[in-house]
Amino acid sequence: MNFDDMKKIWDEQNSETLYAINEDALHRSITGKKKAASKRIDFVERTIMGINGVMAIVLFIDALNDPHYWDFFGSAILAYTVIYIFFTRRRRIKAENTFDNSMLGELDHAIANTQSIVKFAYFMFVGYLLPFSIFYFLKFVVRGAPPEKWVFIMVMFLISIFLVIWDRKAKHIPRKRELEKLRAKLVED
Predict the structure, then answer these.
(1) Whole-angstrom distance, CA of residue 7 vs CA of residue 106
(2) Phi-psi region of 144 (alpha: psi -120 to 50; beta: other; left: phi over 0)
(3) Cβ distance 63 to 72 under 8 Å?
(4) Quick check: 109 and 30 in contact, CB under 8 A?
(5) Going by DSSP bridges, is the β-strand pair 8-11/16-19 parallel, antiparallel, or unpaired?
């Protein structure tokens, strides 16, 4: 149930518009939003850590079989992202215990998890896709690569960067604003 969709009641005595709030339905809605935000950030963190961890191992093994510093460097970038995500995840989970066990506390929890997703999307661009784009560009310049490989990698990175930025702007930031509006309405009343 959305806050704006609550039933209006006309108070004829004071000529004021009042709202009847079904607190149980509102609380269930907020709890659902909190759980959904927690599931989203948990899934994203675990998935990226898993993918990057496997790829770091694969690149490292590949580098051992055909020693070249480029593959070691690529493996190190991926390992760094796994470690970074692991520690930010631990800090986020530890902070989850600081929220009140109330409707407003759960809403703050949902806002914090949604903010974590927004920050994570920014990290994916700045701390992951951008360094890897530069890494592959330099690797191709130094070691050489056929034109079709250049085009393929460049197109894949551009699509990835577009999707990360679009996902952040189209989904996560509006979701966070919606939760913040709901919080502002609850606090003002």
Answers:
(1) 23
(2) left
(3) yes
(4) no
(5) antiparallel
Q: Are 139 and 84 in contact (CB under 8 A)?
A: no
**Cβ–Cβ < 8 Å for 26, 40:** no
| Structure confidence by residue, pLDDT tens digits, 35-56 | 888 888 899 889 989 988 998 8
Rounded Cα gap, residues 119 and 40, in angstroms = 13
* CB within 8 Å of 6: residues ≥ 6 apart: 19, 20, 21, 22
pLDDT digits 0-9 by tens, 142-182:
878 788 888 888 888 888 888 888 888 888 889 889 989 98
Strands annotated E in the chain: 8-11, 16-19
Q: Any idea which residue has 């470690």 for tokens?
A: 83
E-strand stretches of 15-134 = 16-19
Query: Quick check: pTM over 0.85?
Result: no
Q: Which tokens in the block code for residue 28?
A: 């269930």
> What would the two tokens of residue 116 be?
């974590």
